[in-house]
Every structure is written in C-alpha cells, then in structure tokens.
UniProtKB/TrEMBL annotation:
Entry's family note: Belongs to the outer membrane factor (OMF) (TC 1.B.17) family.
Pfam families per record: OEP
Organism per entry: Mucilaginibacter terrae
Protein localization: Cell membrane
Membrane association type: Lipid-anchor
Keywords: Lipoprotein, Membrane, Palmitate, Signal, Transmembrane, Transmembrane beta strand
Record keyword Membrane present: yes
Signal sequence region: 1-24
Protein name (database record): Multidrug efflux system outer membrane protein
Length: 479
C-alpha cells in the first residue's frame, strides 16, 4: 500500500468513527470595546514603566521590598511554579520523540500435546534439518535481551497542541510570578505607609496628652482656689484617660503593622527601621495611568489570564484529536533464544517493527464528555480573562480618583487643623479670664486631636492611592 493510500485510509476511517466532529475553540474577546482614555486623558505616559527603585523615594521601604523578594514564601512558591511549568513543558515536548527502553525478559511455557505449538514442536524436533541447541525443549523457555521503542505519529496535532498548552502555561507561570511581586510590593508599601501614619498619630496623641496633663493641673489649681469645681476636674481627667487609651490602641496597631511587614519579608519579629515623617515624605513624581489599552501589555494578571486561555484552546484541540485513530510504531532489536547458552550467538539476533492503528468506538462517549468538560473550562478561562480586564480598569479609575480627592481633602484638613489649633489657644485664654467654661476648652482640645488624626489618615490615603495606581496599571515588578 502506498503512503498516499495509507493516509487516505486513515482519513476515511477517522471521519467514519467521529462523523467528522467539528472543532470548537474559545475566542479571546474583551467584555466591550475598551475606553480610549481615563476620564478624558489621552496621555500615554504610564507609571507602570517606572522601576520600583525609582518610584519609591524612601530607602527604608526599598530595603524592605528587596528583603521580601529573597525570603517571602509567596515569591519562593511562585518561582517553584515556574520550575514545575518548565518541567511540564519539557515533558510534553519529549512526547514527540520515540521512546527507547532496554528490555530483558525471561519466561517458560509448557505446550500441551494436542495444541498447534505442541504438535508443531514435536514434528520440528524430528526433522533432519535441526540438531543440538536448535531442538525445542518442552517446557520451552523464552529469553530476550534488547531494545524496544514506541513512537506515536502525531497525525492530528494532539502532541503538538499538548506542547502548545504547556508552553502557554509556562508563560502564564512567569506572569503569575510578576503578579505576585506586584502584589507583594503593593502590600509592603501599603503597610509601610500605614506604619508611618501610625507613628505620626502616636506623636499627635502624645503631644495632646502633654497639653491635657497641663490643662488638668491648671484646673486642679483653680479648684483649690475656688474657681473650678470637681466636675471640671473629672471632665479633664476623663478626656486625658480617653487620649491615653487611644495611645495604647495606636501602639498595638503599630505592633501589628510591624509584624505584618516582618511576615511579608519572610522574617520573624524585629523592629522595622524608619525615620521619615509621612507629612514630609514626597509623593512619586510620575502618577499617570496612560491609556486603558496599555493594561493588556502591562498588567501581569491580564497576561496570565490570556496565556491560560490560549492553553485551554490548545487543550480543546488536543482532546478533540482523541476522536481520531492513533498510529503507533513499535520497532525492536535484540537477542532472542530459548536456551541461555546461545542467547548471545549471532544467530539469535532478532529485530522487527510493529505498526498499530487504534481508534475509539465504544469509548467515544467518554472522549466526548472529556471534550465538553475541556470546552467548559475554556469558557471559564474566557470569563476570567474578561473579569480581569474589567477589574483592572475599575482599579485604575478608583486609584486616580482617590489621589485627586484625598489630596483636596488633605488641603482642607490642613486648614481645619490650623483653625482648630487657634481655637484651642483662644479657648484656653478665655477660660483663664472666665469668659469660657471648661467644656468649651475640652471640646476644642478634642476637636483638634480628632482633626490632626484625620489629617495623618488622609495623608496616608494619598500614598496608598499612589501605590494602588502603581499596582493597578501593572507596575511594581520591574527592579
């Protein structure tokens, strides 16, 4: 049979067995057409292109991030996922090549006198053409020592698509590593700025504790002189205790935040070095998002979802190829004899090749079920990709607005703190001359404390907004 007739026969057989099943893959498509800009801005400059070392101005923060990249468990685990995906790629790539195995086997079989082998061997032994070691014993041993190979011809692209799926999952694992580094950078920076804000809150609280202690001492003296009552003393004392309680809670928050940074850095408990006030710390100079289409290139999670979707499409093609017949060639060469004494005799050399075509008939429903399952998983990958794109766009918008709105709120809060600080001074002066009561002093002190704490909180939110923007546009993994 010629090669052309052989392949034609295989094709006809395949169509007969599968009724020429149509192949359906999952096309990559966005939820809707992506907007051309964020809030009307068409500037293509994106902060995603800025390396971590240039984006963050604080050297203490950069040292924390560098430490985490070498010791964080999530980073180390993601590196192992890359190694596993690479090994899987090598494995699937080698499925194309024929296998070669060293085969050594030994067996024995007694043939019945009324069997074809039994009668045939009996007559053979009576032949004048054989003698000595050529005579067949009964029971008959069988010894083989040689090489056997098996090679599946990839007629329908099954092995090719398995390798393609493995390759895309390897790329997805690399994007997953970038996503872990981006997320880790964001988490460390967020916790670090929270720690700086808590330090500032603690300074504000302790300053107010000193002021309230002085106010309490003054009202105690006034009570002794008959100018104040015990009620006033207790009110000032209650305010002092409230502020001291706030101090203890902030100190606990500082401890927890330091422990969180230690955890993210892969370290046990230790003090986090820092000496920068969040009020004087400068924001990154570049805080631009670029255009939405750049997310497809910059966001590691979008790239990861894209590669996973391509891998699923390759899986669908590989499973679809299981409907078609499989052609396998099995050559062998070695020594074969029924006596060990002549096993390595040149006359014992044996070789051959077997070819087999197998095609599904009764198990087509199983293959169809596997095919439908793979298609469903492919659609899940598509919806995951679309969700990732939508989520990334919303994250960028939220980050841009948070920086803008918190910056405006911070300016207003600064003016509020200044006004309330002046109010405290005026209230103290009026109280000393008897033109204001102690409740007005307490209220003024409480208001300025709350405003100063809100000021620190607002400044922290500006920095966190900048970090979120950096992460949401796909930055944070470039060194």
């Amino acid at each position: 049979m010629s090669r052309y007739k052989f392949y034609s026969f295989i094709g006809v057989l395949a169509c007969a067995l599968t009724a020429c099943s149509s192949l359906k893959t999952v096309d990559i498509s966005l939820p809707d057409e992506m907007p051309g800009s964020y809030a009307g801005s068409t500037d293509t400059t994106s902060v995603a292109m800025v390396p971590v070392s240039k984006f963050f101005p604080d050297t203490y923060l950069l040292n924390l991030i560098d430490t985490a990249f070498s010791a964080n468990p999530d980073i180390l685990a993601s590196l192992q996922r890359i190694e596993a995906a690479n090994a899987n790629l090598k494995y699937n790539g080698l499925l194309w090549a024929p296998t070669l195995n060293l085969n050594a086997r030994a067996g024995v079989e007694r043939y019945g006198e009324y069997t074809m082998n039994g009668v045939g061997n009996y007559d053979t032994n009576l032949s004048q053409n054989i003698s000595g070691n050529q005579r067949i014993p009964n029971p008959t041993p069988d010894y083989f020592l040689g090489f056997q190979s098996s090679w599946e011809l990839d007629l329908w692209g099954k092995l090719k698509n398995r390798k393609k799926a493995a390759f895309n999952r390897f790329l997805a694992s690399q994007s997953g590593y970038k996503m872990v580094t981006t997320s880790l950078t964001s988490q460390i920076a967020t916790a670090y700025y929270q720690l700086l804000a808590l330090d500032n809150e603690l300074r504000v609280i302790r300053k107010n504790i000193d002021l309230q202690n002085n106010a309490l001492e003054i009202v105690k003296v006034q009570k002794l002189g008959g100018r104040a009552t015990e009620l006033a003393v207790q009110q000032f004392l209650a305010q002092l205790k409230r502020t001291q309680g706030m101090e203890a809670m902030v100190k606990q928050q500082i401890t927890e935040t330091e422990n969180q940074l230690n955890f993210l850095s892969g370290k046990f408990s230790k003090s986090i070095p820092r000496d920068t006030s969040i009020n004087t710390l400068k924001l990154p100079t570049v805080l631009k998002a670029g255009v939405p289409s750049q997310l497809l290139l910059n966001r590691p999670d979008i790239q990861q979802a894209d590669f996973e979707l391509k891998a699923m499409n390759a899986d669908i093609k590989a499973v679809h190829a299981a409907f078609f017949p499989q052609l396998t060639l099995s050559p062998y060469v070695g020594f074969n004899a029924f006596r060990t004494s002549v096993l390595f005799n040149p006359g014992s050399i044996a070789y051959g090749i077997l070819g087999g075509v197998t095609g599904p008939i009764f198990n087509r429903k199983q293959i169809k079920a596997d095919y439908e399952r793979t298609q469903a998983e492919g659609k899940q990958a598509l919806y995951s990709y679309q969700k990732t794109v939508l989520n990334s766009y919303q994250e960028v918008l939220n980050s841009l607005k948070s920086i803008e709105n918190y910056t405006t709120a911070y300016r207003n809060k600064q003016q509020e703190v200044q006004a309330l600080t002046n109010a405290v001074s005026v209230a103290n002066d009026l109280y000393l001359v008897g033109r204001a009561n102690y409740l007005e002093v307490i209220t003024a002190q409480r208001n300025v404390l709350d405003a100063e704490l809100e000021l620190a909180h607002t400044k922290k939110n500006i920095f966190i907004g900048a970090v979120n923007l950096y992460r949401s546009v796909g930055g944070g993994w470039k060194r």
